[in-house]
């Protein structure tokens, strides 16, 4: 392969590799940023191609330089060897030989043998000969050794025999003329003939007086010469390729850094947009938003500042635990699920308020943070308490109603069971209310009830829970009771009820009937205890004065008999089983 073809292939392969890498890099960058390489790093890309072109051009110059240096080195080696051999010929009296010399001349034979020996000692030499110029100006061979052109190890061709002395040398070689002028010369390029390629060197052989006697011609094997030049060429190409790849690597690194910077800027811009959107959203909502990490507040919106009573600078870096009461903090620490909590929080002034919060974990500026949304539910809790109060208390007196009384009796029974105590259930009926309502109106009747209830609440012992059952009926629950304690409480209720009630300047009187049942003697559940206390109270309905009565089993039988009689009478009436035997008639006007 010629040098020019090698150069061309080298340049084309280098350009191909650069373009393939460039195309791959272009696709990667386009996929990530939708930008071209010139948009990512215009100056770097232009610089890369300019320097890459300069490297290729410089590489060719460098490769030529290496070839020339190798040629010079080869030439110097050939010069030294040729000088040594030429000096040897001078010492062997080569000047005595001419075209008239007989081939049997001792000097000729000796020189011929020595030249053949030199040729055998140096395998890179294809041929060796000496030339002289006759009076006619023609060059002729003086001594020309045998040549194994075919490299078979033997001389078997007529043309491989040594040339006879006086054979005319008809080839014109400028370097030969230069040698006859007393200067060493070497062919610039190898020459090719039927025996192959060779490159010739020519060294003048001087006489004793210093004039040129002859020229020693040496034909070197061009294959070895070319191999040495090609080796240097390839060395130069590898070095140039390495430099080009290093420059390409620097370019790739620069592009990578630019891409990462662009991606970082893009991510940063997106993050800033997201943060601004989040901040605008956080500022526009009523809920307080707190961002915290490692127990410290990082950011808070205006709603959170208003909620806790702090300015933003005070709230930032504040420990989160300072905003919560201990019980709420433990509740959150022991439950890492993302759910809605109802907790108690603390304001700057120390007041505690109920709040509803939800907490999520996010990645914020490369670190894990918790974003907590807080809603003040004080108003809702107050409304819930009001609704609960309305649902469980009497509108007029504010006492627990039937539903609340049932729950309270159940709780008291459970407590009494655990403590092995008794509970007294008192069924109170205020008599005389119908007369007051009919005569003075319901507003006066309500005032009477309110005054009596207020006195009961003021003067009752702490173990008594009073509730309104219906109309003028009330129930009192006495926990930790005995029959004696129940008797004392009943007397107190009666005494209060017997006192006159002053309403709108009028002195009004009522009486009270109290039926009492005891847990566990009279029953084990609220329904039974209330029913039996009501039976005992019913027993006292016909009594004019305030009285109380404990339940006894015969009372239940009497009630059952009365209920049974009423049921039978109703059925008999429906069936027409009554017969009229006597009907008195009275004249009212007489």
UniProtKB/TrEMBL annotation:
Keywords in alphabetical order: Membrane, Transmembrane, Transmembrane helix
Domain PAC: from-to ranges: 339-389
PAS domain location: 274-316
Pfam families: GGDEF, PAS_9
Sequence ranges assigned to domain EAL in this UniProt record: 562-590
Record-annotated membrane-spanning stretches: 7-26, 46-65, 236-257
Record domain GGDEF: where: 421-553
CDD domains cross-referenced by the UniProt entry: GGDEF (cd01949), PAS (cd00130)
PROSITE patterns, per the entry: EAL (PS50883), GGDEF (PS50887), PAC (PS50113), PAS (PS50112)
InterPro entries (UniProt xref): Biofilm_reg_signaling (IPR052155), EAL_dom (IPR001633), GGDEF_dom (IPR000160), Nucleotide_cyclase (IPR029787), PAS (IPR000014), PAS-assoc_C (IPR000700), PAS-like_dom_sf (IPR035965), Rev_trsase/Diguanyl_cyclase (IPR043128)
Gene3D superfamilies according to UniProt: 3.30.70.270, PAS domain (3.30.450.20)
Domain of life: Bacteria
Designated name of the protein: GGDEF domain-containing protein
Originating organism: Parageobacillus toebii
């Amino acid at each position: 392969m010629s040098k020019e073809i090698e150069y061309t292939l080298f340049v084309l392969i280098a350009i191909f590799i650069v373009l393939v890498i460039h195309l791959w890099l272009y696709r990667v960058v386009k996929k990530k940023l939708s930008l071209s390489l010139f948009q990512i790093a215009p100056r770097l890309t232009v610089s890369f191609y300019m320097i890459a072109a300069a490297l290729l051009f410089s590489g060719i110059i460098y490769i030529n330089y290496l070839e020339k240096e190798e040629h010079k080195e080869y030439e110097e080696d050939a010069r030294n060897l040729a000088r040594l051999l030429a000096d040897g010929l001078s010492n062997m009296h080569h000047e005595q030989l001419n075209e008239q010399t007989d081939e049997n001349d001792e000097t000729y034979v000796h020189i011929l043998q020595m030249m053949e020996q030199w040729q055998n000692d140096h395998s890179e030499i294809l041929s060796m000969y000496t030339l002289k110029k006759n009076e006619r100006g023609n060059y002729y061979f003086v001594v020309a050794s045998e040549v194994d052109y075919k490299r078979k190890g033997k001389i078997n061709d007529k043309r491989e025999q040594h040339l006879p002395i006086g054979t005319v040398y008809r080839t014109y070689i400028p370097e030969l003329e230069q040698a006859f002028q007393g200067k060493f010369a070497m062919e610039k390029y190898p020459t090719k003939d039927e025996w192959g390629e060779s490159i010739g060197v020519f060294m003048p052989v001087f006489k004793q007086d210093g004039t040129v006697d002859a020229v020693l011609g040496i034909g070197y094997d061009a294959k070895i010469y070319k191999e040495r030049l090609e080796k240097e060429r390839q060395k130069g190409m590898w070095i140039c390729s390495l430099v080009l790849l290093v420059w390409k690597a620097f370019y790739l690194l620069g592009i990578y850094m630019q891409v990462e910077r662009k991606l970082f800027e893009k991510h940063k811009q997106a993050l800033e947009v997201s943060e601004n959107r989040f901040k605008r959203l956080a500022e526009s909502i009523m809920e307080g938003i707190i961002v915290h990490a490692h127990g410290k507040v990082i950011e808070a919106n205006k709603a959170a500042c208003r909620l806790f009573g702090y300015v933003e600078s005070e709230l930032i870096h504040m420990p989160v635990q300072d905003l919560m009461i201990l019980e709420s903090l433990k509740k959150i620490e022991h439950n890492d699920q993302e759910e809605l909590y109802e907790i108690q929080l603390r304001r700057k002034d120390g007041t505690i308020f109920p709040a509803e919060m939800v907490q999520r974990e996010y990645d914020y500026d490369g670190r894990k943070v918790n974003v907590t949304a807080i809603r003040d539910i004080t108003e809702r809790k107050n409304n819930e308490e009001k609704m609960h109060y309305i649902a469980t208390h009497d509108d007029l007196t504010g006492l627990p109603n039937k539903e609340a009384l049932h729950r309270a009796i159940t709780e008291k029974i459970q407590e009494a069971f655990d403590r092995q105590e008794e509970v007294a259930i008192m069924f109170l009926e205020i008599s005389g209310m119908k007369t007051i309502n009919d005569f003075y109106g319901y507003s006066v009747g309500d005032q009477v009830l309110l005054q009596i209830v207020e006195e009961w609440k003021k003067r009752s012992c702490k173990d008594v829970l009073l509730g309104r059952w219906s109309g003028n009926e009330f129930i009192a629950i006495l926990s930790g009771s005995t029959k004696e304690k129940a008797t004392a409480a009943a007397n107190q209720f009666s005494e209060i009820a017997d006192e006159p009630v002053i309403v709108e300047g009028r002195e009004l009187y009522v009486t009270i009937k109290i039926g009492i049942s005891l847990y566990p003697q009279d029953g084990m559940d609220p329904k039974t205890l209330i029913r039996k206390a009501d039976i005992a109270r019913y027993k006292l309905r016909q009594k004019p004065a305030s009285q109380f009565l404990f339940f006894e089993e015969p009372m239940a039988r009497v009630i059952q008999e009365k209920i049974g009689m009423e049921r039978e009478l109703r059925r008999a009436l429906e069936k027409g089983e009554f017969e009229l035997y006597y009907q008195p008639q009275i004249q009212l006007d007489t």
